[in-house]
Design brief:
With 325 residues, the protein is α/β, with parallel strands linked by helices. The chain folds into 2 domains: 172 residues, Peroxisomal Thiolase, Chain A, domain 1; 143 residues, Peroxisomal Thiolase, Chain A, domain 1, CATH 3.40.47.10. Helices cover 32% and strands 26% of the residues. Strands 1-7-6-4-5 form a 5-stranded mixed β-sheet, sandwiched between helices. Strands 8-13-12-11 form a 4-stranded mixed β-sheet. Strands 2-3 form a two-stranded antiparallel ribbon. It is globular and about 60 Å long. The mean pLDDT is 97. The chain binds acetyl coenzyme *A (ACO). The site of acetyl coenzyme *A has 23 residues, from helix 2, helix 6 and helix 7.
């Protein structure tokens, strides 16, 4: 049976120029390179310049993704930005990106599911593309987590970074089997009873401030491995494949120990797991497209490969998405 799938036809990413090492952070909080690397695997993170809003990072990533897909901004008919650090409360960062890249009048909005944002956004975009409502969708994960840090809290400020990644989704015809190119299945979840484990203590209708990120790190850690493993299994089932058939796992890059823990729980070959956490730290909704871009650019992930994205973040939200490149 012939079906329309949404295929990833281009990927791009952008990291701000400034690199902040663990050693530099150890000058402002009581921490060490050794502690950070041992507990998280992180060596460094990138930080946006003061005058560089999230939309600027998103625009850089979007332009590269469009070029990789052989498209121009004039082709774009849907823009979804996954972010928890928008330029402004409104308009959406997606509308600002639309203005900056000179895309024509189209559909543009943000998705907010914190670190799971990109998995949510690509699944939402799949609905538009596969139903014929969009022919060239830009799905962007863009974050400046540095803006949410309490720089006196060593338990959080060492974990996060800034960056952006983007994919272009286009409709392709498939046969309705797991051999098709494009998005094959996803699984999305939220458990709102756990909002207090990971949140920002500010907002327009409460404090009137931006606020700072607060996290019960080890409790989040405990949920992460179990939740992510469940989402991976569900997304693989929705795609009609076994987890063992997946060529590449591109996880949210929060902590190397979580990535390893999920891999062990699912019996994954660690050579199939893409990890950029050492160089990027946790860039929330940007981390998956950043890692995807790195593994495509260095030739690991190739056309025809079965790829599985997975994430967990504030909400708590979690999810996974399987697609064939
Ligand atoms: N440097 C040195 N010591 C530190 C630091 C630091 N940067 N941070 C905490 N410590 C100390 C603590 O104070 C504690 O000291 P104590 O024993 O004297 O009280 C000790 O290290 C151990 O602290 P734990 O919190 O138990 O350390 P843990 O091994 O759990 O690692 C970490 C902490 C890295 C935060 C881990 O729990 C983690 O990665 N959690 C999950 C984070 C995550 O995945 N978030 C999800 C997405 S984020 C999003 O959605 C926005």
């Amino acid at each position: 049976m012939s079906v329309i799938r949404s295929a990833v036809t281009g990927v791009g990413a952008y990291l701000p120029e400034r690199v902040v090492t663990n050693a530099e952070l150890s000058e402002i909080v009581d921490t060490s390179d050794e502690w950070i690397q041992e507990r998280t695997g992180i060596r460094q993170r990138h930080r946006a310049a003061d005058d560089q809003p999230t939309s600027d990072l998103a625009v850089e990533a979007a332009r590269k993704a469009l070029a990789a897909a052989g498209k121009t901004p004039a082709d774009v008919d849907l823009i979804i930005v996954a972010t928890t650090t928008p330029d402004m409360t409104f308009p959406s960062t997606a509308s600002i990106v639309q203005r900056k890249i000179l895309a024509p009048t189209c559909i543009a909005f943000d998705v907010q599911a914190v670190c799971t944002g990109f998995v949510y956004a690509i699944s939402v975009a799949d609905g538009f593309v596969a139903r014929g409502h969009a022919k060239c969708a830009l799905v962007i994960g863009a974050e400046e987590m540095s803006r949410l840090m309490d720089w006196t809290d060593r338990s959080t400020c060492v974990l996060f970074g800034d960056g952006a990644g983007a994919v272009v989704l286009e409709p392709v015809e498939g046969q309705g089997t797991p051999a098709d190119r494009g998005i094959l299945g996803f699984s999305l979840r939220s458990d709102g009873t756990k909002t207090d484990l990971l949140y920002v203590d500010g907002g327009p209708s409460t404090t009137g401030t931006v606020g700072h990120l607060r996290m019960a790190g080890n409790q989040v850690f405990r949920h992460a491995v179990v939740n992510i493993a469940e989402a991976v299994t569900s997304a693989a089932a929705a795609a009609g494949v076994e987890v063992s058939e997946v060529d590449w796992f591109v996880p949210h890059q929060a902590n190397q120990r979580i990535i390893r823990g999920v891999g062990e729980r699912l019996g994954l070959d660690e050579n199939k797991v893409v990890s950029t956490v050492a160089d990027h730290a946790n860039t929330s909704a940007a981390s998956i497209p950043l890692a995807l871009d790195a593994a495509i650019r260095d030739g690991r992930i190739k056309r025809g490969d079965l790829v599985l994205l997975e994430a967990m973040g504030g909400g708590l939200t979690w999810g996974a998405c399987a697609f064939r490149l």
